């Protein structure tokens, strides 16, 4: 949620208060969702980009 009265610094401080474990869990869930909902073509593109790195 974006609060218009917040400054950029206040927003960053608020996000920094979220525990790292919770952030990683959220990232894992987002990754699983993207893998589940992506088409085969999109998955192949992501896989090729990953190999390049």
Q: What class, by secondary structure content?
A: mainly alpha
Oligomer: single chain
Parts with pLDDT < 50 across at least 5 consecutive residues: none
H/E element order: HHH
Major sheet attributes = none
Mean pLDDT: 89
Task: Walk me through the topology.
Elements: H1 8-16, H2 20-37, H3 40-52
Q: Could you give a quick summary of the protein structure above?
A:
The protein is an all-alpha fold and 53 residues long. It is built from 3 helices and no strands.
Describe this structure in words.
This protein has 53 residues and is mainly alpha-helical. 75% of the residues lie in helices and 0% in strands. The chain has three helices and no strands. The chain has helices spanning 8-16, 20-37, 40-52. The longest helix is centred in the middle third of the chain and has 18 residues, at 20-37. The chain is elongated, with a radius of gyration of 16 Å. The mean pLDDT is 89.
Keywords:
53 residues, elongated, 3 helices, mainly alpha
């Amino acid at each position: 949620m974006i609060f218009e009265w917040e400054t950029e610094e206040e927003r960053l401080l608020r996000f920094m208060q979220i525990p790292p474990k919770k952030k990683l869990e959220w990232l894992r869930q987002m990754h699983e969702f993207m893998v589940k909902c992506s088409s085969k073509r999109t998955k192949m593109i992501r896989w090729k980009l990953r190999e390049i790195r």
